[in-house]
Design brief:
Elements lengths: L12 H22 L1 E5 L2 E4 L3 H7 L2 H31 L5 H15 L2 H11 L6 H8 L10 H29 L3 H9 L4 H12 L1 H16 L3 H6 L11 H11 L3 H31 L2
Antiparallel strand pairs: 1-2
Helix pairs in contact: 1-13, 2-13, 3-7, 3-10, 4-7, 7-10, 10-13, 12-13
Length: 287
C-alpha cells in the first residue's frame, strides 16, 4: 500500500499565518469593539448587542444603504452590458488588438483619488471641459449644487473608470472560445445575434460571474472617488455607506457603533455576493 506524503501542506502554513494576521485578527478586534462602549483606551464597558440595535434603527444608515443599493444596481446595469459590447467590438488579433488592450487598461491604472480629482476639474463649469460644454449647450449643470448632476457625475465617473475591467474580462473569455463553434455557426448560417445568444453568452457565464461579483463588491464599498469629487454632497446625496462609516468611526470616534456597523456592512456584501453566485450558477446545475 502506497503511503501518501502530505508534507507539502507545511508550505501553506505561511499563507495561513499571513491571512490570520491581516484578516482574522483585525476582524476579531472589530467584533470585540462592537460589544463594548469605549471611552478611552483603558475605559470600556460591555454593552452586548446595544450597538447593533442602534445601527439597525438609525435612519441615516437606512438612507445610505438605499443610496448604495441604487448606485450598485445602476453600475451593474450599465457596465456589464457596455463591457460586453466593447469586448465584442474589439479586434481579435493584430496591432489594433494590442492597442485596444493598452487603451482599455489605462483607466484601471489611475489611482482612485486621482480619478476623483480628474472628474472634479473635468466637471467644473468654469475650467472643466464637461461642465463648460454642458453649460454652453444650455444645460444648467452644477454637480456641487444639484443632486441629480452629482449622482450622474459620480455614476459616469465610475463607468469610465471600471467598464474597462468588465471589457477585458469578457475579451479574455471570448478569445478562449474554440473556433469550431464559430465554424459550426457559419455552416448553419447563424446570425450574429444567434451566435451571441447560443455560443458567446453561455461561454461567458463564468467570466460574467467574476465581473458581476467584482463590480458589485467594489461599487458597494466605493469611498475615495465620490469623497474627492463631491464630499458626499450636495447635502447627503452622494454619501454612501463607506463615507457614513468613516464619519462615525473617525469623525465622531464612535468606535462601538462603527464596529457594529462595519460587521453588518461586511455581512451585507457577503450575503448579496452569495446570492449573485447562487443565481448565476443555478442554471448550470440544472442542465
Amino acid at each position: 500500500m502506497k503511503v501518501q506524503n502530505n508534507h507539502a501542506w507545511w508550505l501553506v502554513l505561511p499563507v495561513f499565518a499571513l491571512v490570520a494576521f491581516s484578516a482574522i485578527l483585525p476582524m476579531m478586534t472589530v467584533v470585540n469593539y462592537s460589544v463594548q462602549d469605549i471611552f478611552d483606551p483603558t475605559t470600556r464597558f460591555f454593552v452586548g448587542t446595544d450597538w447593533y440595535e442602534k445601527v439597525l434603527t438609525d435612519p441615516r444608515l437606512h438612507d445610505s444603504l438605499l443610496r448604495q443599493f441604487i448606485f450598485s444596481a445602476c453600475v451593474l446595469a450599465i457596465e456589464i452590458p457596455l463591457g460586453i459590447a466593447v469586448a465584442l467590438s474589439m479586434p481579435t488579433k493584430g496591432r489594433w488588438a494590442s492597442l485596444c488592450l493598452i487603451v482599455l487598461a489605462i483607466p484601471l491604472l489611475i489611482p482612485w483619488n486621482v480619478v476623483g480629482t480628474i472628474w472634479q476639474i473635468f466637471g467644473r463649469g468654469d475650467i472643466g471641459l464637461l461642465g463648460w460644454a454642458l453649460n454652453a449647450l444650455g444645460f444648467s449643470y452644477n454637480y456641487a449644487a444639484d443632486t441629480l448632476d452629482a449622482w450622474v457625475t459620480v455614476l459616469v465617473m465610475d463607468v469610465w473608470h471600471w467598464t474597462s475591467l468588465v471589457a477585458l474580462l469578457c475579451y479574455s473569455g471570448l478569445r478562449a472560445i474554440p473556433d469550431v463553434y464559430y465554424q459550426a455557426a457559419r455552416i448553419d448560417r447563424a446570425s450574429s445575434w444567434a451566435v451571441f445568444r447560443h455560443i458567446q453568452l453561455p461561454k461567458l457565464k463564468s467570466v460574467l460571474l467574476i465581473a458581476v461579483m467584482l463590480r458589485f463588491m467594489d461599487s458597494f464599498m466605493i469611498y475615495t472617488e465620490p469623497f474627492v469629487l463631491t464630499g458626499g454632497g450636495p447635502g447627503n446625496a452622494t454619501t454612501f455607506l463607506s463615507q457614513t462609516l468613516t464619519k462615525m468611526a473617525v469623525g465622531q470616534f464612535d468606535l462601538g457603533p462603527a464596529a457594529a456597523f462595519s460587521l453588518i456592512y461586511f455581512l451585507i456584501i457577503l450575503l448579496v455576493s452569495w446570492l449573485f453566485y447562487t443565481a448565476m450558477t443555478h442554471g448550470d446545475q440544472n442542465r
